[in-house]
Protein backbone atom coordinates (compact mmCIF):
# COMPACT_ATOMS: atom_id res chain seq x y z
CA UNK A 1 0.00 0.00 0.00
CA UNK A 2 1.39 3.41 -0.96
CA UNK A 3 0.47 7.10 -0.91
CA UNK A 4 -1.36 7.12 2.42
CA UNK A 5 -3.14 10.43 2.99
CA UNK A 6 -4.09 11.24 6.58
CA UNK A 7 -7.07 13.59 6.54
CA UNK A 8 -7.12 16.36 9.10
CA UNK A 9 -10.73 16.80 10.24
CA UNK A 10 -11.70 20.44 10.63
CA UNK A 11 -14.34 21.95 12.91
CA UNK A 12 -17.78 22.50 11.43
CA UNK A 13 -19.49 25.82 10.72
CA UNK A 14 -21.11 27.83 13.54
CA UNK A 15 -24.82 28.24 14.30
CA UNK A 16 -27.74 26.18 13.03
CA UNK A 17 -28.72 27.03 9.47
CA UNK A 18 -32.26 28.43 9.42
CA UNK A 19 -32.82 26.69 6.08
CA UNK A 20 -32.42 23.29 7.70
CA UNK A 21 -34.05 24.25 11.00
CA UNK A 22 -37.38 25.28 9.43
CA UNK A 23 -37.77 21.98 7.60
CA UNK A 24 -39.41 18.93 9.16
CA UNK A 25 -36.92 16.75 11.04
CA UNK A 26 -35.02 14.23 8.97
CA UNK A 27 -33.37 11.04 10.16
CA UNK A 28 -29.76 10.85 8.93
CA UNK A 29 -28.86 7.89 6.75
CA UNK A 30 -26.77 5.24 8.49
CA UNK A 31 -23.08 5.85 8.97
CA UNK A 32 -20.58 3.44 7.46
CA UNK A 33 -20.03 0.50 9.83
CA UNK A 34 -18.44 -2.07 7.50
CA UNK A 35 -16.02 -2.51 4.61
CA UNK A 36 -17.43 -2.20 1.11
CA UNK A 37 -16.28 -2.29 -2.45
CA UNK A 38 -17.61 -0.10 -5.27
CA UNK A 39 -16.75 1.40 -8.65
CA UNK A 40 -16.89 5.06 -7.64
CA UNK A 41 -16.53 6.73 -4.26
CA UNK A 42 -17.70 10.34 -3.95
CA UNK A 43 -16.51 12.15 -0.82
CA UNK A 44 -18.80 15.05 0.21
CA UNK A 45 -22.55 15.41 -0.29
CA UNK A 46 -22.75 19.09 -1.29
CA UNK A 47 -23.58 20.46 -4.75
CA UNK A 48 -20.41 19.05 -6.31
CA UNK A 49 -20.60 15.59 -4.74
CA UNK A 50 -24.30 14.96 -5.32
CA UNK A 51 -24.14 16.31 -8.88
CA UNK A 52 -21.13 14.08 -9.56
CA UNK A 53 -23.04 11.05 -8.29
CA UNK A 54 -26.08 11.89 -10.45
CA UNK A 55 -23.89 12.38 -13.55
CA UNK A 56 -22.03 9.10 -12.87
CA UNK A 57 -25.34 7.30 -12.78
CA UNK A 58 -26.35 8.89 -16.10
CA UNK A 59 -23.08 7.78 -17.69
CA UNK A 60 -22.91 4.29 -16.24
CA UNK A 61 -26.25 2.97 -14.99
CA UNK A 62 -24.67 -0.25 -13.70
CA UNK A 63 -21.87 1.38 -11.69
CA UNK A 64 -21.92 0.91 -7.92
CA UNK A 65 -21.53 4.36 -6.33
CA UNK A 66 -20.91 5.20 -2.67
CA UNK A 67 -21.10 8.70 -1.18
CA UNK A 68 -19.46 9.45 2.17
CA UNK A 69 -20.52 12.63 3.97
CA UNK A 70 -18.75 13.80 7.15
CA UNK A 71 -21.85 15.45 8.64
CA UNK A 72 -25.58 15.18 8.06
CA UNK A 73 -26.73 16.15 4.59
CA UNK A 74 -27.36 19.94 4.40
CA UNK A 75 -25.46 20.69 7.64
CA UNK A 76 -22.46 22.01 5.69
CA UNK A 77 -22.14 25.00 3.33
CA UNK A 78 -24.52 23.41 0.78
CA UNK A 79 -27.36 23.90 3.28
CA UNK A 80 -26.15 27.28 4.58
CA UNK A 81 -26.01 29.51 1.52
CA UNK A 82 -28.42 32.13 0.20
CA UNK A 83 -29.70 29.87 -2.55
CA UNK A 84 -28.97 31.95 -5.67
CA UNK A 85 -28.09 29.64 -8.56
CA UNK A 86 -26.87 32.47 -10.76
CA UNK A 87 -26.37 32.17 -14.48
CA UNK A 88 -24.55 35.46 -15.05
CA UNK A 89 -20.99 36.59 -14.20
CA UNK A 90 -20.65 36.80 -10.44
CA UNK A 91 -17.00 36.99 -9.41
CA UNK A 92 -17.11 37.66 -5.69
CA UNK A 93 -13.42 38.43 -5.41
CA UNK A 94 -13.68 41.28 -7.89
CA UNK A 95 -15.11 44.73 -7.19
CA UNK A 96 -17.89 44.39 -9.79
CA UNK A 97 -19.77 41.74 -11.77
CA UNK A 98 -18.65 43.06 -15.16
CA UNK A 99 -15.78 41.07 -16.67
CA UNK A 100 -14.20 39.96 -19.91
CA UNK A 101 -16.82 39.30 -22.62
CA UNK A 102 -15.67 35.99 -24.11
CA UNK A 103 -14.87 34.44 -20.73
CA UNK A 104 -18.24 35.69 -19.45
CA UNK A 105 -20.12 34.11 -22.37
CA UNK A 106 -18.41 30.79 -21.69
CA UNK A 107 -19.17 31.03 -17.97
CA UNK A 108 -22.80 31.91 -18.64
CA UNK A 109 -23.20 28.82 -20.86
CA UNK A 110 -21.62 26.62 -18.16
CA UNK A 111 -23.77 28.14 -15.41
CA UNK A 112 -26.92 27.63 -17.47
CA UNK A 113 -26.00 24.01 -18.09
CA UNK A 114 -25.72 23.55 -14.32
CA UNK A 115 -29.08 25.26 -13.69
CA UNK A 116 -30.74 23.14 -16.38
CA UNK A 117 -29.12 20.00 -14.91
CA UNK A 118 -30.52 20.88 -11.46
CA UNK A 119 -33.90 21.86 -12.93
CA UNK A 120 -34.18 18.56 -14.82
CA UNK A 121 -33.50 16.58 -11.66
CA UNK A 122 -35.99 18.74 -9.73
CA UNK A 123 -38.63 18.09 -12.42
CA UNK A 124 -37.91 14.39 -12.82
CA UNK A 125 -37.97 13.77 -9.06
CA UNK A 126 -40.83 16.14 -8.19
CA UNK A 127 -38.93 18.48 -5.86
CA UNK A 128 -41.32 20.94 -4.15
CA UNK A 129 -41.48 24.39 -5.83
CA UNK A 130 -39.69 26.07 -2.95
CA UNK A 131 -36.71 23.69 -3.37
CA UNK A 132 -35.96 24.94 -6.89
CA UNK A 133 -37.66 28.00 -8.39
CA UNK A 134 -36.41 29.36 -11.75
CA UNK A 135 -37.80 32.83 -10.97
CA UNK A 136 -34.84 35.15 -11.68
CA UNK A 137 -33.41 37.67 -9.24
CA UNK A 138 -32.92 41.39 -8.69
CA UNK A 139 -29.61 43.18 -8.11
CA UNK A 140 -30.70 45.73 -5.52
CA UNK A 141 -29.10 49.18 -5.15
CA UNK A 142 -29.56 51.25 -1.99
CA UNK A 143 -27.15 54.13 -2.70
CA UNK A 144 -25.42 56.02 -5.51
CA UNK A 145 -22.56 53.51 -5.20
CA UNK A 146 -24.96 50.62 -5.80
CA UNK A 147 -26.72 52.46 -8.61
CA UNK A 148 -23.35 53.04 -10.32
CA UNK A 149 -22.60 49.31 -9.99
CA UNK A 150 -25.96 48.45 -11.56
CA UNK A 151 -25.40 50.91 -14.41
CA UNK A 152 -22.02 49.35 -15.20
CA UNK A 153 -23.59 45.90 -14.97
CA UNK A 154 -26.44 46.94 -17.30
CA UNK A 155 -23.93 48.17 -19.91
CA UNK A 156 -22.04 44.91 -19.66
CA UNK A 157 -25.22 42.81 -19.99
CA UNK A 158 -26.22 44.89 -23.01
CA UNK A 159 -22.85 44.17 -24.64
CA UNK A 160 -23.35 40.47 -23.94
CA UNK A 161 -26.88 40.60 -25.41
CA UNK A 162 -28.37 39.46 -22.11
CA UNK A 163 -31.91 40.54 -21.17
CA UNK A 164 -32.51 42.65 -18.06
CA UNK A 165 -35.05 45.10 -16.68
CA UNK A 166 -34.25 48.22 -14.65
CA UNK A 167 -36.54 48.98 -11.70
CA UNK A 168 -36.96 52.36 -10.01
CA UNK A 169 -37.41 52.96 -6.27
CA UNK A 170 -41.23 52.59 -6.43
CA UNK A 171 -41.00 49.30 -8.29
CA UNK A 172 -38.48 48.04 -5.73
CA UNK A 173 -40.84 48.98 -2.91
CA UNK A 174 -43.66 47.10 -4.61
CA UNK A 175 -41.44 44.01 -4.63
CA UNK A 176 -39.96 44.14 -1.15
CA UNK A 177 -42.28 46.42 0.84
CA UNK A 178 -39.41 48.67 1.91
CA UNK A 179 -38.42 52.13 0.62
CA UNK A 180 -34.76 51.39 1.39
CA UNK A 181 -33.77 50.72 -2.21
CA UNK A 182 -33.21 53.30 -4.95
CA UNK A 183 -33.34 50.88 -7.85
CA UNK A 184 -32.81 47.37 -9.09
CA UNK A 185 -31.77 45.31 -12.08
CA UNK A 186 -33.85 42.22 -12.72
CA UNK A 187 -32.44 39.29 -14.71
CA UNK A 188 -34.50 36.20 -15.53
CA UNK A 189 -31.99 33.33 -15.62
CA UNK A 190 -31.27 32.69 -11.92
CA UNK A 191 -32.94 29.81 -10.11
CA UNK A 192 -33.57 30.39 -6.42
CA UNK A 193 -33.37 27.35 -4.18
CA UNK A 194 -34.22 26.59 -0.57
CA UNK A 195 -30.68 25.26 -0.16
CA UNK A 196 -31.24 22.72 2.63
CA UNK A 197 -34.40 21.41 0.97
CA UNK A 198 -32.75 21.22 -2.44
CA UNK A 199 -29.76 19.32 -1.05
CA UNK A 200 -31.97 16.97 0.96
CA UNK A 201 -34.11 16.29 -2.14
CA UNK A 202 -31.03 15.81 -4.32
CA UNK A 203 -29.51 13.39 -1.81
CA UNK A 204 -32.73 11.38 -1.76
CA UNK A 205 -32.97 11.46 -5.55
CA UNK A 206 -29.40 10.24 -5.96
CA UNK A 207 -29.86 7.55 -3.34
CA UNK A 208 -33.20 6.49 -4.78
CA UNK A 209 -31.37 5.30 -7.88
CA UNK A 210 -30.06 1.76 -8.12
CA UNK A 211 -26.51 1.07 -6.95
CA UNK A 212 -25.95 4.31 -5.04
CA UNK A 213 -25.47 4.35 -1.25
CA UNK A 214 -25.03 7.46 0.86
CA UNK A 215 -23.52 7.22 4.34
CA UNK A 216 -23.80 10.25 6.61
CA UNK A 217 -21.68 11.13 9.64
CA UNK A 218 -18.93 9.16 7.92
CA UNK A 219 -15.88 11.38 7.53
CA UNK A 220 -13.01 10.03 5.48
CA UNK A 221 -10.03 10.01 7.83
CA UNK A 222 -7.48 8.34 5.60
CA UNK A 223 -7.10 7.63 1.93
CA UNK A 224 -4.58 5.11 0.57
CA UNK A 225 -3.66 3.66 -2.80
CA UNK A 226 -3.74 -0.15 -2.83
CA UNK A 227 -2.66 -1.50 -6.21
CA UNK A 228 -5.10 -0.13 -8.77
CA UNK A 229 -7.68 0.92 -6.17
CA UNK A 230 -8.18 3.51 -3.46
CA UNK A 231 -9.18 2.68 0.09
CA UNK A 232 -10.98 5.36 2.13
CA UNK A 233 -11.08 4.76 5.88
CA UNK A 234 -13.79 6.15 8.14
CA UNK A 235 -14.05 5.70 11.93
CA UNK A 236 -15.78 2.32 11.64
CA UNK A 237 -15.55 1.17 8.04
CA UNK A 238 -13.83 1.48 4.71
CA UNK A 239 -14.68 1.89 1.04
CA UNK A 240 -12.50 0.44 -1.70
CA UNK A 241 -13.08 1.99 -5.10
CA UNK A 242 -11.46 2.15 -8.51
CA UNK A 243 -12.15 5.88 -8.74
CA UNK A 244 -12.62 8.53 -6.07
CA UNK A 245 -13.99 12.07 -6.45
CA UNK A 246 -13.12 14.49 -3.64
CA UNK A 247 -15.98 17.02 -3.53
CA UNK A 248 -15.11 18.58 -0.19
CA UNK A 249 -14.91 22.29 -1.01
CA UNK A 250 -11.96 24.07 0.71
CA UNK A 251 -11.37 21.01 2.90
CA UNK A 252 -9.48 19.47 -0.04
CA UNK A 253 -6.50 21.07 1.74
CA UNK A 254 -7.03 18.74 4.67
CA UNK A 255 -6.38 15.88 2.22
CA UNK A 256 -3.00 17.48 1.49
CA UNK A 257 -3.88 18.99 -1.91
CA UNK A 258 -3.75 22.62 -3.08
CA UNK A 259 -2.10 23.70 0.19
CA UNK A 260 -1.51 27.48 0.40
CA UNK A 261 -3.47 27.97 -2.82
CA UNK A 262 -7.04 28.31 -1.54
CA UNK A 263 -8.68 31.25 0.23
CA UNK A 264 -11.23 30.32 2.90
CA UNK A 265 -13.96 32.90 3.35
CA UNK A 266 -16.68 32.73 5.96
CA UNK A 267 -20.05 34.23 5.09
CA UNK A 268 -22.85 34.87 7.57
CA UNK A 269 -26.63 34.81 7.34
CA UNK A 270 -29.64 35.32 9.61
CA UNK A 271 -33.30 34.36 9.27
CA UNK A 272 -36.20 36.00 11.09
CA UNK A 273 -38.83 34.08 12.97
CA UNK A 274 -42.04 33.43 11.01
CA UNK A 275 -44.02 36.66 10.66
CA UNK A 276 -47.61 36.78 11.89
CA UNK A 277 -50.56 37.98 9.78
CA UNK A 278 -50.34 41.58 11.11
CA UNK A 279 -46.63 41.78 10.37
CA UNK A 280 -47.14 40.39 6.86
CA UNK A 281 -49.76 43.07 6.23
CA UNK A 282 -47.43 45.80 7.56
CA UNK A 283 -44.65 44.48 5.35
CA UNK A 284 -46.49 44.57 2.01
CA UNK A 285 -44.56 43.56 -1.11
CA UNK A 286 -44.44 40.25 -2.94
CA UNK A 287 -44.71 36.89 -1.22
CA UNK A 288 -41.27 35.78 -2.40
CA UNK A 289 -38.31 37.66 -3.79
CA UNK A 290 -34.54 37.39 -3.98
CA UNK A 291 -32.20 40.40 -3.99
CA UNK A 292 -28.49 40.05 -4.57
CA UNK A 293 -26.39 43.14 -3.79
CA UNK A 294 -25.42 45.47 -6.62
CA UNK A 295 -22.08 45.90 -4.87
CA UNK A 296 -20.70 42.35 -4.51
CA UNK A 297 -19.76 42.96 -0.85
CA UNK A 298 -23.28 44.22 0.07
CA UNK A 299 -26.30 42.42 1.56
CA UNK A 300 -28.36 39.64 0.09
CA UNK A 301 -32.05 39.73 1.04
CA UNK A 302 -34.72 37.10 0.52
CA UNK A 303 -38.34 36.77 1.50
CA UNK A 304 -39.65 33.22 1.67
CA UNK A 305 -43.13 31.90 2.24
CA UNK A 306 -42.76 28.13 2.08
CA UNK A 307 -43.32 25.41 4.63
CA UNK A 308 -41.51 27.42 7.35
CA UNK A 309 -43.89 30.39 7.07
CA UNK A 310 -43.13 33.93 5.87
CA UNK A 311 -39.62 34.97 6.83
CA UNK A 312 -36.86 37.29 5.72
CA UNK A 313 -33.28 36.17 5.29
CA UNK A 314 -30.28 38.51 5.31
CA UNK A 315 -26.73 37.67 4.31
CA UNK A 316 -23.83 40.05 4.76
CA UNK A 317 -20.32 40.41 6.20
CA UNK A 318 -17.49 38.08 5.34
CA UNK A 319 -14.22 37.22 7.00
CA UNK A 320 -11.01 35.59 5.85
CA UNK A 321 -9.99 32.60 7.98
CA UNK A 322 -6.79 30.84 6.86
CA UNK A 323 -7.16 28.30 9.69
CA UNK A 324 -10.83 27.57 8.89
CA UNK A 325 -11.70 28.04 12.55
CA UNK A 326 -14.01 30.76 13.80
CA UNK A 327 -14.56 32.16 17.29
CA UNK A 328 -18.18 32.11 18.53
CA UNK A 329 -18.02 35.80 19.47
CA UNK A 330 -17.48 36.66 15.77
CA UNK A 331 -20.85 35.10 14.96
CA UNK A 332 -22.49 36.83 17.95
CA UNK A 333 -21.29 40.25 16.86
CA UNK A 334 -22.29 39.70 13.22
CA UNK A 335 -25.75 38.62 14.42
CA UNK A 336 -26.11 42.16 15.80
CA UNK A 337 -25.06 43.61 12.42
CA UNK A 338 -27.73 41.51 10.73
CA UNK A 339 -30.39 42.80 13.06
CA UNK A 340 -29.33 46.38 12.29
CA UNK A 341 -29.33 45.64 8.55
CA UNK A 342 -32.82 44.19 8.82
CA UNK A 343 -34.32 47.04 10.87
CA UNK A 344 -32.77 49.64 8.53
CA UNK A 345 -34.79 48.03 5.74
CA UNK A 346 -37.89 47.17 7.75
CA UNK A 347 -38.45 49.82 10.46
CA UNK A 348 -42.16 48.87 10.35
CA UNK A 349 -41.26 45.51 11.94
CA UNK A 350 -39.48 46.67 15.12
CA UNK A 351 -40.37 43.60 17.15
CA UNK A 352 -39.25 41.04 14.58
CA UNK A 353 -36.09 39.28 15.75
CA UNK A 354 -33.71 36.89 14.05
CA UNK A 355 -34.42 33.30 15.01
CA UNK A 356 -31.30 31.82 13.41
CA UNK A 357 -27.83 33.14 12.65
CA UNK A 358 -25.13 30.99 11.11
CA UNK A 359 -21.80 30.99 9.32
CA UNK A 360 -20.59 28.92 6.40
CA UNK A 361 -17.52 28.63 4.22
CA UNK A 362 -16.76 29.24 0.64
CA UNK A 363 -13.53 28.75 -1.19
CA UNK A 364 -11.83 31.07 -3.68
CA UNK A 365 -8.60 31.01 -5.64
CA UNK A 366 -6.64 34.18 -6.47
CA UNK A 367 -6.83 33.44 -10.20
CA UNK A 368 -10.51 32.39 -9.97
CA UNK A 369 -9.96 28.83 -11.22
CA UNK A 370 -11.48 25.63 -9.87
CA UNK A 371 -9.36 23.08 -8.01
CA UNK A 372 -10.65 20.50 -10.45
CA UNK A 373 -8.90 17.61 -12.15
CA UNK A 374 -7.09 14.30 -11.69
CA UNK A 375 -4.77 14.44 -8.67
CA UNK A 376 -3.39 10.88 -8.92
CA UNK A 377 -4.49 8.01 -11.14
CA UNK A 378 -8.15 7.40 -10.26
CA UNK A 379 -8.33 10.29 -7.76
CA UNK A 380 -10.18 13.47 -8.79
CA UNK A 381 -10.90 16.84 -7.19
CA UNK A 382 -14.11 18.86 -7.72
CA UNK A 383 -13.43 21.79 -5.39
CA UNK A 384 -13.03 25.58 -5.07
CA UNK A 385 -16.17 27.04 -6.66
CA UNK A 386 -15.10 30.70 -6.35
CA UNK A 387 -18.20 31.93 -4.59
CA UNK A 388 -20.90 30.64 -6.88
CA UNK A 389 -20.89 27.15 -5.41
CA UNK A 390 -24.50 26.24 -6.11
CA UNK A 391 -23.91 26.61 -9.85
CA UNK A 392 -20.17 26.11 -10.21
CA UNK A 393 -20.19 23.25 -7.70
CA UNK A 394 -22.73 21.55 -9.94
CA UNK A 395 -20.48 22.12 -12.98
CA UNK A 396 -17.46 20.80 -11.05
CA UNK A 397 -19.37 17.65 -10.08
CA UNK A 398 -20.49 17.03 -13.66
CA UNK A 399 -16.97 17.55 -15.06
CA UNK A 400 -15.29 15.38 -12.41
CA UNK A 401 -17.79 12.57 -13.02
CA UNK A 402 -17.14 12.73 -16.75
CA UNK A 403 -13.36 12.63 -16.17
CA UNK A 404 -13.61 9.75 -13.71
CA UNK A 405 -15.76 7.65 -16.03
CA UNK A 406 -13.63 8.41 -19.10
CA UNK A 407 -16.57 10.17 -20.78
CA UNK A 408 -15.18 13.70 -21.14
CA UNK A 409 -15.73 13.31 -24.91
CA UNK A 410 -19.51 13.46 -24.35
CA UNK A 411 -19.41 16.32 -21.86
CA UNK A 412 -22.54 18.23 -20.87
CA UNK A 413 -20.25 21.25 -20.41
CA UNK A 414 -18.10 21.44 -23.55
CA UNK A 415 -17.16 25.00 -22.52
CA UNK A 416 -15.21 23.71 -19.56
CA UNK A 417 -11.49 24.12 -20.18
CA UNK A 418 -8.70 22.44 -18.20
CA UNK A 419 -7.80 24.76 -15.36
CA UNK A 420 -4.49 26.28 -14.37
CA UNK A 421 -3.46 25.49 -10.80
CA UNK A 422 -4.90 27.92 -8.26
CA UNK A 423 -2.21 30.57 -7.72
CA UNK A 424 -0.10 30.36 -4.58
CA UNK A 425 -1.21 32.61 -1.74
CA UNK A 426 1.09 35.22 -0.23
CA UNK A 427 2.96 34.02 2.85
CA UNK A 428 1.34 34.47 6.26
CA UNK A 429 0.78 36.79 8.04
CA UNK A 430 0.70 39.01 4.91
CA UNK A 431 -2.05 36.98 3.23
CA UNK A 432 -4.45 37.23 6.16
CA UNK A 433 -3.62 40.88 6.85
CA UNK A 434 -4.03 41.78 3.17
CA UNK A 435 -7.27 39.84 2.65
CA UNK A 436 -8.83 41.23 5.83
CA UNK A 437 -7.84 44.80 4.93
CA UNK A 438 -9.35 44.49 1.44
CA UNK A 439 -12.59 43.07 2.89
CA UNK A 440 -12.86 45.77 5.56
CA UNK A 441 -12.16 48.52 3.02
CA UNK A 442 -14.77 47.18 0.58
CA UNK A 443 -17.30 46.82 3.40
CA UNK A 444 -16.67 50.41 4.45
CA UNK A 445 -16.94 51.57 0.80
CA UNK A 446 -20.22 49.69 0.38
CA UNK A 447 -21.96 52.01 2.89
CA UNK A 448 -25.75 51.57 2.71
CA UNK A 449 -25.37 48.53 0.41
CA UNK A 450 -24.34 46.62 3.54
C1 LIG B 1 -23.98 32.29 4.01
C2 LIG B 1 -23.59 31.79 2.64
C3 LIG B 1 -24.25 32.26 1.51
C4 LIG B 1 -23.92 31.77 0.25
N1 LIG B 1 -24.68 32.12 -0.81
C5 LIG B 1 -24.49 31.53 -2.01
C6 LIG B 1 -25.40 31.77 -3.07
O1 LIG B 1 -26.40 32.47 -2.94
N2 LIG B 1 -25.12 31.19 -4.28
C7 LIG B 1 -24.03 30.37 -4.44
O2 LIG B 1 -23.85 29.87 -5.55
N3 LIG B 1 -23.19 30.08 -3.43
C8 LIG B 1 -23.39 30.63 -2.22
N4 LIG B 1 -22.57 30.30 -1.16
C9 LIG B 1 -21.44 29.39 -1.39
C10 LIG B 1 -21.87 27.92 -1.48
O3 LIG B 1 -22.62 27.52 -0.36
C11 LIG B 1 -20.64 27.01 -1.57
O4 LIG B 1 -19.77 27.51 -2.54
C12 LIG B 1 -21.09 25.60 -1.93
O5 LIG B 1 -21.76 25.00 -0.85
C13 LIG B 1 -19.90 24.74 -2.33
O6 LIG B 1 -20.43 23.49 -2.74
P1 LIG B 1 -19.53 22.19 -2.65
O7 LIG B 1 -20.36 21.04 -3.00
O8 LIG B 1 -18.27 22.41 -3.40
O9 LIG B 1 -19.05 22.12 -1.12
P2 LIG B 1 -19.88 21.96 0.24
O10 LIG B 1 -21.24 22.46 0.08
O11 LIG B 1 -19.01 22.55 1.31
O12 LIG B 1 -19.92 20.39 0.42
C14 LIG B 1 -18.74 19.67 0.77
C15 LIG B 1 -19.13 18.55 1.70
O13 LIG B 1 -17.97 17.75 1.93
C16 LIG B 1 -18.06 17.24 3.24
N5 LIG B 1 -16.73 16.81 3.69
C17 LIG B 1 -15.66 17.58 3.96
N6 LIG B 1 -14.62 16.82 4.38
C18 LIG B 1 -15.06 15.53 4.36
C19 LIG B 1 -14.46 14.30 4.70
N7 LIG B 1 -13.19 14.21 5.17
N8 LIG B 1 -15.21 13.17 4.58
C20 LIG B 1 -16.50 13.23 4.11
N9 LIG B 1 -17.11 14.38 3.79
C21 LIG B 1 -16.39 15.53 3.91
C22 LIG B 1 -18.60 18.42 4.04
O14 LIG B 1 -19.19 18.01 5.26
C23 LIG B 1 -19.60 19.04 3.07
O15 LIG B 1 -20.92 18.60 3.30
C24 LIG B 1 -22.85 30.82 0.10
C25 LIG B 1 -22.18 30.36 1.23
C26 LIG B 1 -22.54 30.82 2.48
C27 LIG B 1 -21.82 30.28 3.68
Q: What do these coordinates show?
A:
By secondary structure, the chain is α+β, with helices and mostly antiparallel strands. The protein has one domain (2-449): FAD/NAD(P)-binding domain (3-Layer(bba) Sandwich), CATH 3.50.50. It has helices at 18-21, 47-59, 101-124, 144-160, 169-176, 195-208, 277-283, 328-345, 389-404, 430-446, and strands at residues 2-6, 35-43, 65-68, 84-85, 132-133, 137-141, 165-168, 183-187, 191-193, 212-215, 222-226, 229-233, 238-246, 263-272, 289-293, 300-306, 309-320, 354-364, 371-376, 379-383. Strands 1, 2, 3, 10, 11, 12, 13, 19 and 20 form a 9-stranded mixed β-sheet that branches. An 8-stranded mixed β-sheet has the order 7-8-6-15-16-17-14-18. A hairpin with a 2-residue loop joins β19 and β20. Flavin-adenine dinucleotide is lined by residues 7, 43-49, 68-71, 76-78, 80-84, 219-220, 247-249, 251, 267, 269, 315, 360, 362, 385, 388-391, 393.
In summary, what is this structure?
The chain has 450 residues and is α+β, with helices and mostly antiparallel strands.
How does the SSE layout of this entry go?
Elements: E1 2-6, H1 18-21, E2 35-43, H2 47-59, E3 65-68, E4 84-85, H3 101-124, E5 132-133, E6 137-141, H4 144-160, E7 165-168, H5 169-176, E8 183-187, E9 191-193, H6 195-208, E10 212-215, E11 222-226, E12 229-233, E13 238-246, E14 263-272, H7 277-283, E15 289-293, E16 300-306, E17 309-320, H8 328-345, E18 354-364, E19 371-376, E20 379-383, H9 389-404, H10 430-446
Parallel strand pairs: 2-3, 2-13, 3-10, 6-15, 13-20
Antiparallel strand pairs: 1-11, 4-9, 5-9, 6-8, 7-8, 11-12, 12-13, 14-17, 14-18, 15-16, 16-17, 19-20
Helix pairs in contact: 2-6, 2-9, 3-9
The structure holds flavin-adenine dinucleotide.
Residues 7, 43-49, 68-71, 76-78, 80-84, 219-220, 247-249, 251, 267, 269, 315, 360, 362, 385, 388-391, 393 line the site of flavin-adenine dinucleotide.
